[in-house]
Amino acid sequence: LFRHMTGVGGRPELIIEGHVDGEWREVPFRFKPGNTSRIPGFIVPHQPRLDWQMWFAALGQPGSAPPWFISLLHRILTQEKTVLRLLGRGTDLPKWLTEGEISGIRVRKYLYHYTNVSEGSLLAGPFWKRENQVEFLPELNRADPRMKHYLKQANLWESKKTAKKRRKRRRQDIASPGIPRALHYLREGVSWLEESIGHEQLVWLALLTALCLGSALRACWRAFRRLPVDDGWDKELEENMKRLERKKMQ
């Protein structure tokens, strides 16, 4: 399994394409290989969950895909913001993906290879070369009954009525004071930070903040332990206890 995934003999990758204005355009991902001229990203210590799952999906057979992948295609077609946020920051995504009308979507499977230095610029690329292997999934659109049937079987289909109820319930949770409201604002704050500085930078910021807080607490504890002990207070307490015992005996 990992022999194929790590690129021995070529790395399989799924490329999602959206049909906009009469032409097919590639859906960009934040980290996984796509555009051959884009330099591979630095992700440590962040683990991009979606890109990681796409890696496994590429090992499947053409015409078959896991339920989550079909759900991903449906949500890209409907341009759901929470899913588009996983593909990249708003400023990095092309306008056709966020604002355009996507009439269809399909998936092609490519085999990626690293290029040699002689095949491109060290800084400008291309960093990959790829060969088109096969059509992984044929064209699908919003009204395609196959997509709706498949998602219903996997309990991933959400009707307009159900979606409306979910949004209403969420608004009620946000409006009422308590933990749901606090979690909503916490999530919005984290999302804003992620949009501003990126996933991996946000993880580094959280780790450094935790490290600084831990160091500060440790320093405070050490300083507290070095404080002089007031023996006078202990002696006074002991004398008071002895007086009480003598009174009880009398």
Automatic annotation (TrEMBL):
Database matches in Pfam families: LMF1_C
Any GO CC annotation of this UniProt entry: endoplasmic reticulum membrane
Alphabetic keyword roster: Glycoprotein
Organism: Lotharella globosa
Domain Lipase maturation factor 1/2 C-terminal: 1-138
InterPro entries, alphabetized: LMF (IPR009613), LMF1/2_C (IPR057433)
GO BP terms: protein maturation
Entry annotated with the keyword Glycoprotein: yes
Top-level taxonomic group: Eukaryota
Key word Magnesium present: no
Protein name as catalogued: Lipase maturation factor 2
